[in-house]
Structures
1.
Amino acid sequence: MSVLHRVRAFAGQLILLAVLGALAAFLVSGPVRLANGHTDDGLRGDINKLPAASRDLTYSGVQSEGRPNKAAGAGRLDQIRGELPAPLPDMISGAWYIAETDLSSIRPAGVPAGECPNLVRVRWQTGTEGTVTMVDGRSPRSGTAPELMVGKDAAAALGLKVGDRVSLGSRDGVIEAAVVGVFTPVDPAAPIWSDQELLPGACPDPREGQRTEAVLLTDQRGAVALGEALFNLGERWRFRLDEQRITADRVDELTKAVAAARRLTPERTALQSSVDTTLSKFGEQVVAVQALLAVVQAGILATAAGLILLAARLMADRRRAEFALVRARGGAVRTVAGRTLRETLTVVPIAVLAGWLAGIVLPGRASAGEPLLVLAVLLVAVLAAPVYAALVAWHPAFSGHRSDVASLRPSPRRLTAEAFLVLLAAGGIFLLRRRGLDAGAGVDPYLITAPVLLAVAASVVALRLVPFPLRWAGNLAARARGAIAFLGLSGAGRAPLHSGPLAVLVVAIATGLFTGTVTSTVDAARDRAAELAVPADATVSGFRFAPDTAARIAGLPHVDRTTAMLLYQGATVRGDTTPLLTQTQAMVLDTATAGLDLPAALTAARPGGDAVPAIVSPRLAAQLGGGGRVEVQGREYRFTVAAVQANVPGLSSDARDFMVLPQQAMPIPDFQPILPNRILVAGDGFDPEQVRLAADDGQRAQLAALTGGEQKEGQLALPAVVTTRTAYRTSLEERGVDGALSFTFAAGMVAAAALALTAVALAVLTGAPARGRTLSRLRTMGLSARQGRRLLIYEILPLIGVAVLAGGLAGFVLPALIGPALGLGGFTSGVAAGITLDPWFAGGVLAVAAVAVLAALAVENVANRRLRVGTVLRLGEEQS
């Protein structure tokens, strides 16, 4: 028979093998590309959020003492770019030379200087040609006096128009300039304008109100004139990194390049940038995400490989009679393996290639090891069936018939191998905890193998333990009426026959439960972080509110309760037992009405004592002893340490030195009230914008009381900001690598569920011939089709139940066992949370188990029709 005829004859078995190979190849490429794409998007988003001074590589010139800058450094732009360490030169999307004054006062010419003038920076910058549209006037053409060009918004804020003459002043000089043009940028979002924002500023004396800081443009001759007059003209060479060319796999390389650029600066320059800090922090998150992705991918690929092996074994078992005939006619073992190899080579490589191509078309970035993994999938898918065929034909007891009543007692060799596997898994987990994650090794091989070994070891232990309860249950069923339960449990008790499907099913369930447990753990920790940062439904922050601002907000619709709070960053503390003076963060609020989870010593505190109880951070408590004095807004208060806590609601999880004081118990005089800068808002359905407006009214009222003058809307140096807990909690999922993390969790659970169902289907197909013969005999005794389905349920349920218990336990404890190596704290704002499992995930596992039973019934029904169950005895056919 030719190869094509054999392929046609055994098309079902080969198609199953091909489909599983294609699925494995897709899982190697597609999901990883998507995860890498989400990671790259997160990195680019983090870089985009940085201000221009932090994300750009900016070299500042160092001037000689007493020598004004001549704004003559534009020619060095290409030279400095070429000297940047690789790969930075290829990642620059824009480069500009800037000659710019420091902040200088600006006022109408001839008008005496006021106490709080507006401030401007005047710059000449290359690359502005063609990027502006003149609204009025023209571009600067400076002669003896500098000419200025003003943005439309800056002109409105500063009260400037074409034809105005202004006086610019620094501590070293004054010069007059003319406003000759007003412009708008062609593209306001272009990088060239990203460091020219119009900023509100506070006057040195708050009673003088607010002022504006702006950037004005001039030409080169104007910049030189300003430098000679003001002696504060500096020069910069600014290089914009193109975030679209940056990928997460190059973070380490870029971080080192920026660090090298900082060390090896061109002559008389200094580099200003913090992009390497952002890259370094992101790199730490990438390592943690890659660790999680590696665990999930290893579990999924191990499950897929197990399914391929099961399909290959099924193919070899179904063709025992054929292989026996080949051997009887003098064929060697290699003949059996060779003919099977030719069949798989006809179908499987094409399917694997198709699966790989399906993964390639997905957006994202390929991992470095993708070709090797695809090659490994191809080798496993092509060689598994020939190897199994060779083993079947080579076995000394080979006869072409399988025995379903073979001895269930394992050999000493197998028991030794299983014990070694269990010890290897335990040792791998132990070493992983002790050693931690090898960040320099790319994908840590310990991290890949240890979780899979743990799941396989759990299946081995379950395999050895499950016969005992099944034997007990079978004895009970033998005494009951009817033979269905007894026969089903007897079939389930032949555990060695199910060792392969059980191991695959346990690995799949363990991978899914691991993913679900990590998801629940991260979500719980993020919930805790949100509760700490925003201890009410919303927090209003500002510079300084009037004492009645909280009452104003409490009067708004849908606001149930408000609490004024002061976060005082520079509180000076002196301990009773030490002369040490230190500064800490003090939080002052009415703890009795705030509704926060605080110790009873603070919530029950009342006025009248010599000292008020306080919560103190552990590090500060070690310095202070039992109590001391704290200065809050210019007044000292005595306190005693009532509790020591590492975290309190209202302070972020990274706060280290702090104390919490009960405002209701403090001897605060009426003439010197505590002025809050935070307000906690409790309620449901209130309008955050109304809350913000009321808070700003409170800030203006406080400034009016201080300055004696009316404060206009829009002049606050620090407008109020309303942060709801829901918005803060959402923001924790929109930072850095969170997109890749969420995708990894979702893909891991979906893939694990799908592969678990496939494993159950293959387990049913593996035992279908034996059950078919049993059903054929029982049909002659009156067995109904319904009773036949019950027989399958009794046989398959123990397998699924044991897999759910063993895999669920392994998946649940795995995050706790290898958690120190995963670095989950990077995704939870530093908040540590115990291992938790959302009940929905547990219910999902049970739902998958129920679907698995239904799938088993459907597969069994199809298999019975192909095997023609019920005709064996009548027609004398032999089914194998």
2.
Amino acid sequence: MSELASEQATEGGGALRFQMRWAGILAIAGTVLTIVSNLLQQRADIPRGDTLGVLEYIDGKPWLVAAFAGVLGMLCWVMAFTTAGRALREPVSRSIARMAEVTLIVAVALFAVNFAHDGFSSGVLAQEWASGEIEADAAAVDIRVVEGLVGGTSILSQTLLGLALALYALAMTRSGQYSRVLSWMGIVGTLGWFLGGSALFLQLPGASFELLLPFVGLATVWVLGVGITLIRRSSQGSRA
């Protein structure tokens, strides 16, 4: 019986190390893809209010590639955090992570639909306008419609994503498996992401994407730190 229990414990430990390793890899891969997507699109430079200028800007960027990278990055984050959440040892922390799963899946589903619609619709429309297949007036009307549909979905997905990650940050902080500095970095970044997104969705005075960006950046660094921590823990477990 003791040998059987030892074998089961060894198999369980191997499975846990595998989960932690791949959760870390996916967290880092998702972060890299998200950063690449943002660098390719550079949304802060979009000439808002100038519809034809927006089309010209989109046509000059690899818009479809950037959108696809963004969707893949978010899918990596879903797999990483659901796996990391289930690997938490403390029962209450694990329960909080389970609650965050639903919110994260809904947020990323909205994010994927938003990025796919924005990337494909805006990208194709910009190509058709640049090639002369569609007149400028018609293109200007169409891009306004696309921006209106994308805008609301984008803000909602950002808000829910911030909420889901804030719950994961809380669970990881409570578990004690991550450094306090990294844990509090996650709480501040993700909570600011959620509150900033909520203010944008509710159209509160003074709310803007510029106020949201520092928190998103801090949360992104936190995700990268979580990924590195998970890989290091899996490696230490293997050596042990």
3.
Amino acid sequence: MSTIETNISTPTQKTLFEAKKERQKCEQDFILLTNRIKLLQLEEEKSRKHIEESKKKQLLLEKAQKRSIEKTKFKEELQNSFEKQRKIKQKWIQDLKFKISKNKECSLKNIEEAKKKVYIQMRNQRDQSLIEKYQILNDIAKKNKERSLSVREEHKKFSIKTKKLEKLRESQNKSEYIKRLNDELNIKTELKSKFSEMETLESELIKRLQNTQSIQLKAFADLNNFKRKPLSP
């Protein structure tokens, strides 16, 4: 304030000085409240990101567990197939021995033909088992490829969505809200009105942040419980 304004002691000049001081105080309160709201919005955004990451990690763990279960099931089926072939082979050998013991009078030619027949049957059975094995492996590889493509597509969509949100935030940050008021008393009145609205918004954001943080804690708890869950066969 200049020396001339200080020396003037009329009621009008004194009222303007007080109005300026009150307006400046309102502006400072408004700036502080705006900063608090920005911090609350940032905290809410961080909490939502943590929730999305937790859900994403849990989904990946579930898929990994499912693949492990399928792999274990395939090994068991393959082992059962080998065991079945072994029993069939033993039965064929036993049948062959039984036929040999019962047919001692048969010629060596007939015995050789019987052995060849058993060998051909065993070979055909082995080939069929290998075909089934390769078919199972191909099916598993196909399923894994489809899952990989699905996960890749989800990552791509998530990346596009994140970029759009970043561009939107940049656009919002670049926009400026400039408003000039010629009358100091009108500025004071408008600031008071805005201050009341911002207090209401601050209260709502605090409630929303508390709710979001509760959801985040639940998501983390679900994820930890899932990690401690034993692998089911």
